Structures
1.
Amino acid sequence: MKAGTPRRCDVSCDVLVAGGGPAGCAAALALVRAGADVVLVAPAAPDRPRIGESLAPAAGPLLERLGVLGRIALDGHAPCYGGRAVWGGDGPSEVSSVLGPYGPGLHLDRARFDTALLEAAEAAGALRRTGRIRAVERLPDHWRVTTATTGTTGSTATAGTTGTAATTGAGGTLTARYVVDATGRPARLARRLGAAPGRSDRLTALTGILAAPGGGPAEPERTSLVESTPWGWWYTAPLPDGGRVLMAMTDADLVAGTLLHDRDVWWARAQATGHVRHRLAPWREPPRQLDVATAGPSCTRPAAGPGWAAVGDAATATDPLAARGIVMALATGMEGARAILADHAGDRGALAAYARRITALHEEHLHARAVQYQREQRWDTPFWRRRHRTTG
Ligand SMILES: Cc1cc2nc3c(=O)[nH]c(=O)nc-3n(C[C@H](O)[C@H](O)[C@H](O)COP(=O)(O)OP(=O)(O)OC[C@H]3O[C@@H](n4cnc5c(N)ncnc54)[C@H](O)[C@@H]3O)c2cc1C
């Protein structure tokens, strides 16, 4: 890997990054800026709706280091002045970010945010290959990676859109000195290398997007809101276009008993809350569909090995209660890139040290999360009993 203008490559490169979310783009940007030849493989369209639209203020310095803060700031996202939580009592407590060291966070248009990062990685010199990783094989001093194409090569996404419909085409083969798994929670590459994400619980998110109401909504309260319930908790936040995201969080095995997978029951339960319902006042109807997603913390062990590293959710995923998944994805993307560069420069302990750091971050998260769940003691129900038993 030489410093200077990165060379474009077709079938052979220094680093292959699998996944075009925040972690993959952060890793690609950091690597390309250090002079590495990078190919980023990602599907033309996301596998599922992009979820996660509150960007914590701590993302600011990371985006600045990646050289994309200016673009993100001008990209039409809305400020987020903090969060409210009805947790452990009937009244809301407030956390304001306005006076914090990094100022307000953002309510993201998540598709536009991810697209901006992807375009920045391409503009910096990463070659985007549209498709998905199908197989990976270790050869003496490089990897051979087989991809299946799911669209045309090159960036198909434009700001605010999710790209063209994916079509399966011919696959291809790439060789790379290093591979980065940034495929999100499934950690598809790491699994193929014998590592697997271990999950701490079966937390599940049932998410609905409420479209911007007609007639121009009043300026929404630019804060997120969490409200606990006997079976879990609600989360809601405004979207930059006047819409709103609403999530019910419970355990996978409790969904059937609560009927939360039924859109009408989900909506009726939201309307029965003490606080969330006030944020839903402009809407008369539930959203057309609910997206169901795994949401509990997980950690891939090991998160790196000779010639490879997992970053973002593929390395460690956090409970959405912490609202720091994107920050972790950016940070671990950059750290994973640093470890690869250090390994290439001859520091043979760099990737193992990175893997230990991921485990430590995960343990730290489990501890902080256990403390947070202990603060809610009003219900002796399965969801809470499980979390009260956990000490982190
Ligand atoms: C319900 C819920 C709510 C959340 N809310 C928030 C929030 O408000 N704020 C926040 O900061 N975080 C939130 N998060 C977490 C946040 O969304 C994630 O931490 C973040 O998206 C992780 O980024 P990533 O790049 O690691 O993975 P992802 O964003 O999942 O990206 C993975 C990429 O890999 C690609 N891919 C998959 N398979 C392959 C393959 N075989 N080959 C190539 N590419 C592949 C995918 O298409 C995608 O581009 C939430 C998570 C959940 C579950």
2.
Amino acid sequence: MKSAPFELHEPTTVDEAVSLIESLDDPTILAGGQSLVPMLRFRLANPDVVVDINNIDALDYLEEDDEYLHIGALARHVDVEQSELIADNYGSFADSAPLIADPQIRNRGTVVGSVAQADPKGDWGSVLIAHDGDVVVQGPDGERAIPADEFFLLPYDTTLGENELITEVRVPTPVPNEGSAYHKLKRKTGDYAMAGSGVRLVFEDDGTIERAGIGLTAVDITNARASDAEEHLEGEQPSAELFEEAGELAAAQSNPESDEHGDASYKERMVDVLTQRALADAAERAGFVKRRVSQ
Ligand SMILES: Cc1cc2nc3c(=O)[nH]c(=O)nc-3n(C[C@H](O)[C@H](O)[C@H](O)COP(=O)(O)OP(=O)(O)OC[C@H]3O[C@@H](n4cnc5c(N)ncnc54)[C@H](O)[C@@H]3O)c2cc1C
């Protein structure tokens, strides 16, 4: 089936896009089209007006400064997958990118589009939560940064204002003694996660865990923070036992639903295991090598 007809706008600057979004009646933004185009073709989305942002070259970046890693709204999953900056310094991002969908979708789909879609099975939201990241948006009143914790409301529903465009997502640049990782269970290439866990750990020089960030995928109504596990880890020395306890706490705080891929108790067990593995990898990458939990 083909999409219903719509009016198409193709701005070339962020200012032009923001003015268009404000002046048009309920426009839909098109980025990589990997979620939107199938919905158009199946007529699950029937917008009258589409604003295609693919010609805004200024949104095509993946860069780091003293404060943040910035991922612009036109950075594709493959850009993260192939970035040396990411490979060298952002373990959780490097782990996630090649696990998303399939190569075709990764070539076109954007990180920001995935966050905007707010599918609880999307991976980037969990990584953003683990890293205490922000969603940066531009609207008629200027720019604002929405903490990832405050961005996701419900499946496919966010706190993005109706006249706002997401220009980038960002996470703090790594500090000394930091490591991160992402583990995900999916049935086969091209599938979304059945469960996933993103972890960021920051250690003090003596090996005490100073900050723990854990974001969970596909096991709640949004990407979700495993705050009980984070609190349990902070102030402690890493050990396999501590990571086991944290995995159990993350599982207990998750709210997966049973479906054709597995029942809720199985997914909770997966949260436990995936979180333990991500914690072990993050600790190792931070330079605090610990015995990996059994695979
Ligand atoms: C078969 C399949 C498997 C997939 N598997 C995974 C997976 O394992 N993990 C995962 O994370 N994702 C997965 N995805 C989703 C994929 O990551 C898409 O790329 C992503 O959901 C949407 O990104 P996009 O750039 O294609 O956005 P689009 O499809 O263009 O847009 C998606 C939505 O976001 C809005 N939007 C896009 N950009 C902006 C912006 N800058 N500001 C405001 N709103 C915006 C659009 O209006 C639309 O509502 C999968 C998709 C498919 C079809």
3.
Amino acid sequence: MKHKTPVATLVMASLAVLLSACASPSQPKADKALGPVNPAGGHGHVAFMGSYDVNRDGVVTREEYDTLRKQRYMVADSNQDGWLSEAEYVAEFEARLKQQYVAQGRQSDDGYAQMMKQAHVRFNILDKNKDGRLSVEEENDVAERTFKTGDVNLDGVVNAADNMKKDKN
Ligand SMILES: [Ca+2]
Ligand SMILES: [Ca+2]
Ligand SMILES: [Ca+2]
């Protein structure tokens, strides 16, 4: 008795299974693919979570935060000279702001213009030694401060527990 077809048939069959698994819309997305809900951020706890909770699990770990900030800095340094000019800094912010507006189905409005204005102001504050460059050191400084601002209860992560004192006003 000869069995000629089984191997090829099995390969084809398993390929088909693999392909349909990949194409299946019910397949849960990988966490990585999500990214922050509101990448442009802003003030307060909700904005912090929206901007830095990459895997959207309700917790911003220090590692998650540092990785994302480094990524953003590298993307922003479009001429790759190791520091950010005001134009580079603002362009990177605008890309995130646009992404956020598109995701929310919003058109460019006064708020958009205001946030762009603030991005320029922010650059000049972050550029502490006023040489027109945001260096890695300056970026690390602000990253450190921003995380501490978010981590109200100082337990090393930012999550709902940090929302109590801040949004009281
Ligand atoms: Ca997270
Ligand atoms: Ca640069
Ligand atoms: Ca915390």
